[in-house]
Design brief:
Blueprint lengths: L5 H17 L5 H7 L5 H13 L3 E3 L7 E3 L6
Antiparallel strand pairs: 1-2
Helix pairs in contact: 1-3, 2-3
Length: 74
């Protein structure tokens, strides 16, 4: 599996912590603000890479449509 960039690791950690704290996934803008990223397109690009790597599932047509690939239901 491809190695994650520092930014991708940061995003993944942010998503995990956000879900743990709020019981729902963050929006792209939440991630942008929480990880101090310059634009939503940069967040979107990295989310796509994380999805390709099998780290998360993304339903881009749904707000908060992120789930961690290793997330257990219930």
């Amino acid at each position: 599996m491809k190695k994650l960039s520092e930014r991708q690791q940061l995003i993944l950690s942010f998503i995990e912590e956000f879900i743990e704290e709020h019981d729902y996934p963050p929006t792209v803008r939440d991630i942008q603000n929480g990880c101090d990223i310059s634009s939503t397109s940069v967040v979107s690009y990295n989310l796509d890479r994380l999805k390709e790597g099998g780290f998360l599932n993304r339903h881009s047509e749904v707000s908060r449509g992120l789930t961690l690939a290793n997330q257990k239901n219930g």
